[in-house]
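Translate sequence into structure tokens.
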Amino acid sequence: MIVQFTDVIDKNKYSGNIGNFSDQRFYHDRKFSINKNIYQPYLGGTLDGERQSFILHFKISPATVAKIIKIRGLNATIKDIKPNVGEYSNWEVIINVEKTLNHNIFILFESLPVYGEWKLIFGNEDWWMHCDATFEHISLIRVSEPLDDYTISLPRFIVNPEYAYESLGEDLRGDVGQPYGRTVRQLKTFSVTFARVSSNLIDSYYHRVGLTEPHFIVPYPENVYNVPPIWATLTEPPRFTKRAEDSWYYDTQLTWREAY
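Result follows.
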């Protein structure tokens, strides 16, 4: 399980580069538009000679003007796209905007094991110089070692994770039992149980995020399509139950609630 606190890009390195929109802070499920004045807009990061895997996760907004969005990799290889809503090769993705509205899109890509910079260059149907696109959300999630200050790896949980939902609406009933009310939003919840773990890492994790800081949870980095990452907060502090053995190992449970 990988926990990612913020974007994995060091934004301070790119503040002077007008083409890179990595200096924007991405939030899950928040409107984000690529500035129309950006020349050859791209999302980029540094390479340190190690092959690394990332997921670009986004939903296209109906406010997008472009009919086609192209994403081209430089020192980055496109490995997969889910759902299958566009054409892709090792170096390029072509997405039909009309067909992808209301879809959460996951693009899995790998940076090459070289030194320098990787880029995902964004373009429209006509050229690569501009991209007139708006996203409901856009997020970059690292799903490979080595991790850094932005990410940590929690121990593998036991094989009974639980997905559920919480509704922000209120279930009201009339005098004869008819339901009424308004469903505002359903929030996903995700719960896991850890068996025989040291408390130190989970202690540090909880002290960093508390119950109020949203962050990404990637339950299965090797299978993000069946169990997607969740942008969430912890619902309660961890409680540790010492195991009946001489060593200091514990059982504990963590539950997250989707954040917006």
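Note: The CA atoms of residues 242 and 250 lie 4 Å apart.
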